[in-house]
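[User]
If only I could read backbone structure tokens as easily as an amino acid sequence. I have put the entry right below:
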Amino acid sequence: SEALAWDRFEGTTPFVLTSAKVALPLWFGRIIALVTISLVSDAVTLFITMLVVSPSAFFVINMSALMLLFLIVPVASTGFGIAIAAISMMMNDVYTISNALSAILPIVCGVIAPISVFPKMMQYVLYVIPVTHVTQASRSIVDGSVNVGVSLLVILVVGALWAIVGVIIWNVGVAVQQRKGTLTTIGF
């Protein structure tokens, strides 16, 4: 979502949106590039961290499940990112939501504390966010759980649902901005 917000901030989004009759291949190419960069960066970071902190982890952790998680997470998270970017595009400050979420999500989605410490109602809300399932799958892999496959499938399903929601919000936002003539400006 931050990459799309940056495009909006620089003023390139209107040109991208109006450059092709069908912009899907263009956006798909941009998203694939960002996902690839993220995968490489995350893999290097994980490898170095494991090497420095606990070299024995290479022999204990189910590496095939970990690599599968590495491939699934960026794809599943892209849907959530598209939804956040679509909402951000309709605001005057495109970074408000992404900055707030980058501070809040690690706290509430199980990275810092397990989801079980929150009230039940809040847990239901947090299970809608892909980061929650990613965190649980990561913990399952580290703990050697046999239910890792189910966790990975849940990540994909939640990510796919967010992708659908994100595309709908994006299309509605672009249509409203085109109707109001604010596509070339920031926010409504």
Observations:
- DSSP finds nine helices and no strands in the chain.
- The chain has a mean pLDDT of 83.
